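User: These chains co-purify. Model them together.
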Amino acid sequence: MKLFLKPSSPAGLISIVVLMFVFGFMLVPLYTVFCEVTGLNGKTSGQYQGELTNEVSDNARTVTVQFIANRNDNLPWQFSPKQEVMELMLGERKVTSFRVVNTYDKAVVAQAIPSVSPAAAASHLHKIECFCFQQQALGASESKDMELIFFIDASLPGDITKLTLSYTLSDITGTDLVDM
Amino acid sequence: MYEQTKTAHHGPAKGLMRWILTTNHKDIGTMYLVFSLMMFFIGGTMAFVIRAELFQPGLQLVRPEFFNQMTTMHGLIMVFGAVMPAFVGLANWQVPLMIGAPDMALPRLNNWSFWILPFAFLMLLSTLFMDGGAPNFGWTFYAPLSTTYAPPSVTFFIFAIHMMGISSIMGAINIIVTIFNMRTSGMDLMQMPMFVWTWLITAFLLIAVMPVLAAVVTMMLMDIHFGTSFFNAAGGGDPVLFQHVFWFFAHPEVYIMVLPAFGVVSQIIPAFSRKPLFGYASMVYATASIAILSFVVWAHHMFTVGLPLGGELFFMYSTMLIAIPTGVKVFNWISTMFKGSMTFETPMLFAIAFIVLFTIGGLSGLMLAIAPADFQYQDTYFVVAHFHYVLVPGSVFGIFAAVYYWLPKWCGNMYKESMGKLHFWLSIIGVNLTFFPMHFVGLAGMPRRIPDYALQFADFNMVTSIGAFLFGATQLLFVYNVIHTVRSGKKAPQKPWEGAEGLEWTVPSPAPYHTFTTPPAASEK
Amino acid sequence: MRYFLRFVLIYLIVYSSNVLAAWDFNMPIGVTNTSQDIYGLHMTIFYICVAIAVVVFGVMFWSIFHHRKSKGAQAAQFHGNVLVEIIWTIIPLVILVAMAIPATNTLIDMYDSTESDIDIQITGYQWKWHYKYIGEDISFFSILTTPQEEIDNKVRKNPNYLLEVDNALVLPINKKIRFLFTSNDVIHAWWVPDLAIKKDAIPGFINESWTRINKVGTYRGQCAELCGMHHGFMPVVVQAVTESEYEAWLQNQKTAKLAETASAQKQWSMDELMTTGAVVYEKNCAACHQANGLGIPPVFPALNGSAIVQGDAAEHIDIVVNGRQGTAMAAWDTQLSAVEIAAVITYERNSWDNKTGDIVTPADIQAVIDNK
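Assistant: Joint model of the three components:
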């Protein structure tokens, strides 16, 4: 092993090359972990796993949450939040929904991508149930209300009083997904 | 003094096959240099198209889609086709001569790593004639513009990048193995000439980051053809990830293009100051620290992408730190000149211009490192000015200096000094006329990579274009001078430079086809 | 004599500030506190760099003039000095720390995420911007209005060449405005130098930034991230107005929306549709399909002589309204009104060599949209 990794032999150098090539791909999961830790890009973690106390302390702060619905690649679908802005207390469990209409005359599969701003708030917004966890199959001309249940934990940094949760809807019919 | 036994070895084979089959480091070095010069002119022609279109506001010569192809191809060709092969060519010629080795350690590999290149660039250039045109997404090829929204030729672009990468990696492996194993007896690492040192460090950077470039273009290929979603948000990927991986490669790449030039200047300044290099050990450590720091600064290219505050601060501080080792190098060069006995032949002129103009590029780099101010500089002509200052009067002048310095050794003839000086002065005027006004238009708000611009940028753009035409035309003088020297120049002595030191000056001019078949003594550093 | 010098000095200052105005060659000071901080930072660091350059190059050129062989200089043989080397490592470090402190403060200030008064969502499209006033039910596209003739050098260019749009982003002064950036396709970057905001708009994700404008005025910028063919042709125009003017503008926008619905009901003549259609085509379609309708095949097909344009109107309407999946053709019902779509389809069917004589009315379009 010692001999193999000697940086002065061609074999040692080639193994560095191979390692670095693999490292290039390793950056993908590393980056995902990094995003989850720092909330980079406003990426939220997956389904909330913790205990649900549903208790809101009396002196909890109130914050404003805005919902934004975007469509990617000029899709002709209609996609909008049921409620654009809501006030809620930290720790309070809220239910809302987004309405989507498939205007194609054929069935499609859609995927919603969540993003939170400011990014520092991303790790404090927890989704108990979200339509973004699954791919959404939509029949031709079908419309549906997609549910979101979430709360914001009490450790949200004090200077954040307003946060935005954005969903971008993409057509992923016929694409394989890399699980990341 | 070392005497070459001329009869013991056969000379080169005759005709075309000499060049195709050669494993001789001097032949391969020559091929690299000639190839690089050709690419320099092809890339330069594209710059000419860009500057001609930007001569005045409005669209005159080309359409926006072709303009984007020109900026992309100009960047790719200059980086991968002109600057990098030129330095590999210099290494091929000089590393064995400077460490007293008979040839490179892996001569056949050397042949392959060169002969991949013409095919890689033929493939890249052929995309210009394809349906949908050549790559048009900038040399930084950000996803998703280079994946979902790319022209069909992107696949050829990816394969061309793979081939260039393999060529560079093989070249780098060869250089490292040569330096570690083939130094003449008695030459310790800390006695190697600076050019050899900088190339050793560069070669390590190459084998560390070229595989990362290969990985990122492979991910692109998979996204485009195999339905993965590394960079596609819809499938769970992230377009920003592309930029992280790309710049993890591309920032060290920037140093790959300039460290060997540091080495060249560190050879030339002492030679023409007739004084030893000041602070040899600190030069080595500074170069190594620049190389190591280059791995932790990549996101300073991405300050506007929306990094968290902690990230912005980290990359701002780490980037500013690079100023210290770079400063040490500049101070060392100036201290070498201080109290020397200087003469100003063409190599020295280019080396001095390198120090001055590279430092200007370094200082604008320091300004760019300041994250809040970078929000105003990012993606403007200020950035274009900055990196052209470090690459043209930096890397390219370094190459010119090296060619003038070693050409007498390579071909045995002396170049025309007066024409060399003319080339220098016209280049200096051309370079500054081209790139200095770019600082102004950038600060005033002109974004980069646009085929047409608002009226307030018109005057400076015209100056820039005139400068670019002058600089381009001047390079014909260089070509003429080199060809004239090789074919019919005045005979050069074994050591044409009074103050030059090193083993390469102990062999005759021109250097025989085979040198150092028995190891020389390492006393002369 | 002193009098004369003073005159010269004053003349120079006045003159140079005139030149400054005529030849933009520095970063704008801008109209927000942040932009002024950044300008200060930029100038401070610039002067430090100039000072470093003067000292370093000063020593170098002094050596070049005095220590040359032609002047009989003898080369010294020293090649190191530990003390000097330590000093010139520490001095830059101190300078860097001095630079980093104000930079860090400005940066922290820019990341302030306290309550905003107005929230605007900015979406980048190839090649235009979309603005949405969150909570106000106002949203619109902002598209370059510079005529193609000016770009092609056929007529004289106006002073705001390439920096003018149909609908500017209207913002009140003295209010904290929060911007949310995202993109519909590739990465764009929204940049207004006078506000010192440059932020990438990334598909799938949102980024944010904020501003508080101090001064009424019109501020112009451009897309800063290469986003394809017409990257150079998607400017940003911000119009900063007083608070009361802003309120009036909001009211106007809401009334205009009602009026638009009404105009879809009225009877449109061929001439009216052709006139409106020509304008809509120039702004929205000409970038890809070209002013002469010949397109840039194979990516952007020709409309002149096209089977679809000359054929059944229903299919033509379908493509314009719903876009075409897997191509660059957008679904225009989200971007244009029924009147505009009707006008542009009528225009396409009766321009160049296309002579169908068809009139497509806003009611036809509305019917297709309603049936979706």
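Strands of chain A lie at 62-71, 78-81, 85-89, 94-101, 108-117, 125-130, 136-138, 143-152, 162-171.
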